[in-house]
Amino acid sequence: MIRYALTRLTLALPTIIIALFLIFVLIRLIPGDPAQLILGEVDDPAALARIRADLALDKPLPMQFLYWVLALARGDFGTSITMQSPVLDLLGPAFAVTASLVVPSVVIAALLALPLGMLAAWRRNTRTDTAVVAVSTLSLSIPAFWLGLMLLLLFGVKLDLFPVVGYVSLAEDFGEGLHYLALPVLTLALIEAGVLVRLVRASTVEVLQLDYIAHARAKGLTEVAVAGRHALPNVMGPTWTMIGLVLGGLLGGAVVIETVFSLPGLGRLMVEAVFARDYPLVQGCMVVVMLSYVGVNLLVELTAPLLCPAVRHE
Prior knowledge:
Layout: H1 2-29, H2 34-39, H3 45-54, H4 61-73, H5 87-122, H6 127-141, H7 144-158, H8 174-208, H9 211-218, H10 223-251, H11 255-260, H12 266-275, H13 279-307, H14 309-313
């Protein structure tokens, strides 16, 4: 187990370095001079040269990349051009908002998908199976922004049960924060549950055809015992991987949901930074997106042997 963990940690390092290099190159391909944006409309060649020197923009590209990586290692993400604030100070609160939206959504989606997907597989080719597959397909087909708007219209405008706009941090007022997050979390959970239900069903159908399931039934175990003790651990392998992919992707910024519900999350911050051509902030957002994705998937790989016997035996 320790060897497995060390191998995964070792493989994550070159992935991060390659991703940082790609981020660096992509930002440099954007037209415009960051130093000129910081200086504004002032025509001052001396000041422009000084800013370029401070940002190491006068150095060769390999040296710029090295200086940037070393600055990141020190926790220096630069300063936002438009907000005149350290990028790291802006990324922290935005990421916290996105995490408070995404993590509960994925947890709820997984708790819905596991029993429903396994039930559909156990009742394969019955009305129950058809109903579960139909609902999950419908969930996949509905655009996230449309579902969010419909929930806002019903529960926010018509029934006046939840706020329509605004955001309150969970750290400031936990109860009120939950009140503001309820609808966006529900929207995201319903969308992602559709993906997970179909995966759990397909995995369970495959597991039910294996010999050890027939052996468990031959021993006289109840269907509940067969499902919980024998089928579920092996179904969790691909399901846990997909949960990691979904969680990592959404932590990168659930920009549609954040826009619909006016949440100051990471995705919305990145979009605003792109429109403002705020290169340091865009770069910082992309680094956080990359690190969250790699971190979540690394965590999934390290915990997979604890949940799935097949992975553990390998």
